[in-house]
Amino acid sequence: MLTNKSKSFWLLLLPALVGLTLVLFIPLLVGSYYSLTDWNGNTVGQFVGIENYIRAFKDKGFIDSLLFTAKFSVVSVVLINVIALMLATLVTQKLGRWTTFFRTIFFMPNLIEGIILGFIWQFIFNKAFETIGDLTGIGFFKGWLSTPETGFWGLVMLFVWQMSGYMMLIYVSFLNNIPEEILEAADMDGASPMQTFLKIKLPMLMPAFTVTLFLTLSNAFKIYDQNLALTQGGPYNSTQMTAMNIYNEAFAMRKMGFAQSKAIIFLLIIVVISVVQISITRKKEISA
Questions:
Q1: How many other C-beta atoms are found inside a 10 Å radius of the C-beta of residue 37?
Q2: DSSP states of the chain as a string?
Q3: What pLDDT digit, counting tens, does each position of 15-50 carry?
Q4: Is residue 163 part of a domain?
Q5: Using an 8 Å Cβ cutoff, are 246 and 227 in contact?
Q6: CA–CA dist 108, 245 (Å, integer)
Q7: Total structural domains in the chain?
Q8: Which residues form the ABC transmembrane type-1 domain (predicted)?
Q9: Could you list the residue range(s) of the whole structural domain that residue 176 is in?
Q10: Distance separating alpha carbons of residues 51 and 119, to the nearest angstrom
Q11: Domain holding 109: CATH number?
C-alpha cells in the first residue's frame, strides 16, 4: 500500500520517467526494429532480419572507425585524467586569490561548443602551425591534419584540452574532502609529498576515478562535432570516428536501417565497456 510519502516520490519522479520513455526508451525500441529492415528514411521497406548486422561486421569502414575510436578513447582518457589530476593537485595548493583564477582558466575550454572548438583548433593547426613552421623552418609544424597520424593527435589534443578542466573540478572536490587530520598525521610521521599522494590521496580518490573514467570514456566514444569540424574524417576517412561513420551511412548514403544496426552495435559496445569499467573501479574503491 502506497503511503503519502511514496505517492509524493512517484509523483515527483513521473515527469522524468515520462521524458525518458519518450526520448530514450521508445526511440530505442523503434530504432531496434528499423535496424532489422532496409529502411531508407522514407519507407520502412522489407524486413531483412539480422542481415544488416552481418553486413556491419563485414563493413571495413565501420570496423576501421571502431578501431580508430577505441585507440582515440584509450589515449584521450589516460591523458585527460593524468592532466586533470595534476591540475587539481596544483589548484588545491595554497595559492591565495589565484586559486579561483586558475580554476576558471582551466575550466573555460569546456564551455566552448564542440564544433566551434573544432574550428578554433583547425585554425591553430592550419594557420598558426604553418606560420611557425615557415618562420622557423621546422617541418614538425607543417602539414598538420593532412596525415592520419597528425589528424589523430590533433583530435586528441583538442579533446584533452576541452575535457581536462572539467575532470579537474571533480578531482578538486574529492581532494578537498580528504580529512586534514590524515594529511597532518602523515606530515608528522615524516612522509614526503609524493608518499602522501601515493599512499593517502590516491587511494581516497578511487570514487573520483569511477566518475571521471566513465565520463571521459562515454564522451570520447560518442565524439562527432569536433571530428567534423577538425578533420571531417580525412584524409581518406582515416580519422573518421564511429559516430561520423554512422551519420554518413544514414544521411549521406540514405541507408537508415543499416546505419541503425551500426548504432545498436556501437551502443552495446559502449554499454559493455562502461559496465566493465565501473565494476573494476568500484572494486578498487572497496579495496582502498
A1: 21
A2: ---HHHHHHHHHHHHHHHHHIIIIIHHHHHHHHHTTBT--SS----B-TTHHHHHHHH-HHHHHHHHHHHHHHHHHHHHHHHHHHHHHHHHTS--TTHHHHHHHHHHGGGGS-HHHHHHHHHHIIIIIHHHHHHHH--GGGSSTTSSHHHHHHHHHHHHHHHHHHHHHHHHHHHHHTS-HHHHHHHHHTT--HHHHIIIIIHHHTHHHHHHHHHHHHHHHHT--HHHHHHTTT-STTTT--HHHHHHIIIIIS--HHHHHHHHHHHHHHHHHHHHHHHHHHHHHHHH-
A3: 888 998 998 899 889 989 999 998 887 776 788 889
A4: yes
A5: no
A6: 30
A7: 1
A8: 66-277
A9: 48-287
A10: 38
A11: 1.10.3720.10
Residue 256 inside a domain? The answer is yes
pLDDT digits (tens, 9 = 90+) for 188-242: 878 787 888 888 888 888 888 989 999 999 899 989 988 998 888 888 889 999 9
| Range 149-158 average pLDDT | 92
Q: How far apart are CA 248 and CA 255, in angstroms?
A: 9
Higher pLDDT, 167 or 134: 167
Q: Is 196 exposed, middle or buried (0-12, 13-18, 19+ CB in 10 A)?
A: middle
Residue 59's CB is within 10 A of a number of other CB atoms, namely 17
Cα-based angle 79, 248, 267 (whole degrees, multiple of 5): 55
The answer as to whether 5 is a domain residue is no
